[in-house]
Design a protein that fits this description.
Layout (H helix, E strand, L loop, with lengths): L2 H6 L27 H9 L13 H13 L4 E5 L2 H10 L7 E5 L4 H10 L6 E5 L4 H7 L4 E7 L11 H11 L2 E5 L4 H4 L9 E5 L13 E5 L1 H15 L5 H12 L1 H21 L3 E5 L9 H7 L6 E6 L4 H10 L4 E2 L9 E4 L18 E5 L5 H13 L2
Parallel strand pairs: 2-3, 2-4, 4-5, 5-6, 10-11
Antiparallel strand pairs: 1-7, 6-7, 8-9, 9-12, 11-12
Helix pairs in contact: 3-10, 13-14
The structure holds pyridoxal-5'-phosphate.
């Protein structure tokens, strides 16, 4: 399907709302039925129409159609956070006694789900280094129900070969789930490579303006209905109509924003690589990246997030660097207009500062949409301050 058609027209029925160019926010909790039979049908299957906005809502449906089409998926559910999309996708597909194989160091709250919450219900997880398919082969047990992936990882950018993992999982009857937040469906289509469920934090690139928290899950209609009838409705995990409306608005400019961020990232990388105080950089589309070949094979683009290591004598130099930045904000998340940075040393206590640990010398940068000189000049003056 044509990308512009998806973003401009798919799901939008302008004639039914006064030919308004922008869709309405259907701000209602409930929907009235004219006939008892209509109400009965909705009671029997709430996924068949509009009954109550914890379930389906027309504004959210416009967004669902667009997001499913972008991912080449049959269907899609939109959640009130990326974390709830992960929670629903995983818990819907395991029962007590089941086993999960997860790539090592997935998103923090996925780790909390696997480490703290699921073991209470008799579900255990094995983590594997996802850079070689043999590691998955060895970790699979007779009771393995899910292989959980995140490629590229949003911190160290480690990749998994999606087609190879999908082939292994299909042969064993195991469901595959991939967190695609880094790429969005514009730069990577996991379902096309054989993955069963593709999810992303819409808080990042889809929202695109640091003002919405939401999540997306794409897969078959049967799987979406199964999740809708259980986890989605039980815990009330759906996105609100207003947030869905903001996400539709974000989608219109998604391809253009990614282009701008890609170009900015190219220039910032060029600057960082040449700087004497920068020891190393990590970025999937850089030729020095260990999995560059795989990145080029399965991804159509890469941008925004990258990591670099400073060549400094003490952690305090990294603190000085971060606190000298005048424009780049020290903040979690990414995908909005503003460039952001997170120092690895913020995850350790001051008494545990150890400059010999590479992870403490690392900085994760999100290159935003400002003019490239504005970002580079800020990095440059802060590096000079060390
Ligand atoms: C942010 C993020 C999530 C969680 O999404 P929220 O919208 O913050 O709940 C999941 N995976 C990755 C890779 C993320 O960066």
């Amino acid at each position: 399907m044509d990308l512009s058609y998806i973003l401009n027209e798919l799901g939008e029925e302008r004639a039914s709302y006064f030919n308004a160019v922008a869709p309405p926010i259907m701000q209602t909790s409930n929907f009235a039925c004219r006939r008892v039979d209509d109400m009965r049908k909705l009671f029997e299957n709430e996924y068949s129409g509009y009954l109550y906005s914890r379930g389906l809502n027309p504004t959210v449906d416009i967004l669902r159609k667009k997001l499913a089409a972008l991912d080449d998926a049959e269907d899609c559910l939109v959640f009130n956070s990326g974390a709830s999309a992960i929670y629903a996708a995983v818990t819907a597909n395991v029962s007590a006694g089941d086993h999960i194989v997860s790539v090592s160091k997935p998103y923090t709250w996925a780790q909390k789900l696997f480490n703290d919450l699921l073991p209470r219900f008799g579900v255990n997880t094995t983590y594997v280094d996802g850079t070689a398919i043999e590691h998955f082969e060895r970790a699979v047990l007779p009771n393995t129900k899910i292989i959980y992936l995140e490629t590229p990882n949003s911190w160290n950018f480690a990749l998994q070969d999606l087609a190879a993992v999908a082939e292994l999982a299909r042969a064993e009857g195991i469901l595959t789930i991939c967190d695609n937040s880094y790429c969005t469906p514009i730069y990577q289509k996991p379902l096309g490579l054989g993955i069963d469920l593709s999810l992303q934090s819409a808080t990042k690139y889809i929202g695109g303006h640091s003002d919405v928290v939401a999540g997306v899950l794409c897969g078959t209609t049967a799987m979406m209905q199964k999740i809708f009838d259980n986890e989605f409705g039980t815990a009330g995990l759906g996105v609100t109509p207003f947030h869905a409306w903001l996400l539709i608005r974000g989608l219109r400019t998604l391809p253009m924003r990614l282009q701008k961020i890609s170009e900015n990232t190219r220039q910032v990388l060029h600057f960082l690589k040449a700087h004497p105080k920068v020891e190393d950089i990590l970025f999937p589309f850089d030729e020095s990246f260990p999995q560059y070949g795989l990145a080029k094979k399965q991804m159509q683009g890469a941008c925004g997030l990258l990591s670099f290591y400073l060549d400094v004598k003490k952690i305090e130099d990294i603190v000085t660097f971060c606190e000298s930045l005048k424009h780049i904000l020290m903040a979690v998340s990414w995908g909005g207009y503003e460039s952001l940075i997170i120092p690895g040393c913020a995850s350790v206590k001051e008494k545990d500062y150890d400059i010999t640990k590479k992870s403490q010398r690392m900085l994760r940068l999100y290159v935003g949409q400002e003019e490239p000189e504005y970002i580079i000049n800020d990095l440059s003056q802060a590096l000079n301050n060390i």
